[in-house]
Amino acid sequence: MLEVIIKIHIIQYLIIFYKTIPPINQLLIKQLIIYEILIHTNINQIKMEVIISKDKQELGKKAAEKGASLIRKAILENGEANIIVATGASQFEMLTELVKEDIDWSKVTAFHLDEYIGIPDTHPASFRKYLKERFATIVPLKKFNYVNGDIDPKEECERLKKLINNISIDVTFLGIGENSHIAFNDPPADFETKEPYLVVQLDAACRQQQLGEGWFSTIDDVPMQAISMSVSQIMKSKAIICSVPDERKAKAIKKTVDSPVSPMVPSSILKEHKATWLYLDKSSASLL
User: Fold this and answer.
1) How many Cα atoms occupy the beta-carbon half-sphere of 65 within 13 Å?
2) Disulfide-capable partner of 287 in 203, 250, 263, 266 (CB 3.0 to 4.6 Å)?
3) What is the pTM of this model?
4) Strands 197-201 and 225-229, how do they pair?
5) Domains with residue ranges and CATH for the chain
6) How far is CA 66 from CA 44, 79, 94, 242, in A?
7) Segment 190-247, tens digit of pLDDT
8) Distance CA 229, CA 185 (A)
9) Rounded distance, CA 41 to CA 189, Å?
């Protein structure tokens, strides 16, 4: 407890100190304030590191560099790496930079985070299409295990379970939704299930986000269900790289950092993970 109090006092001193030095480094001050919040919230240990960038391009580069270093470390130590890859607008810049990294991709096996039920992989909103175009066909992976959303979903969950059950995941690349979801685990998220993949109902906020990002023409076109990796499976990852740009995510980020861990704020559980890096830009960090 004494160590925690000392950390808080040091951070408070640094905040005051940096405010007196022109030009004021607002990003650095904000980052120190976040660490102070996290120390109070997680009184025993800071487990989530928050990195704020000036824009989404810088965010993507920093997140990709960190993720790549972790992948290379896994290959060096184990001769291979297993990763999980996310989709959505939040991952554009990170994936653009990740495929440029010097990685022996032939030693990397990738798993797919989630997929809509009932749409083919030719649909513009298909996450399989997204990942093939932006990642899996650009780097020579050992294997990519896609989630197939247009076959029987329960059978697909069982198939994926057999693939991932005995695999140690080195790095998970993740985003956070406007409703604070991780993968398609909308609030209230199931924190208890041990199944690695499950069928989930998409809530109104989640479906509206997919429409707002331009993946669908009308709200009626947005599927009601998806196959999603579970929260417990995500939390098994050795490391999590979470990229969250844009002002529309600011409320979700504030809840993630400030609120107690709760199924009503699914992303809040990342504060309990042993090695999570949360990458923000000025816009997504604007309410902190």
Assistant:
1) 8
2) 250
3) 0.84
4) antiparallel
5) 66-278 (3.40.50.1360)
6) 25, 19, 10, 11
7) 999 999 999 999 999 999 999 999 999 999 999 999 999 999 999 999 999 999 999 9
8) 8
9) 21
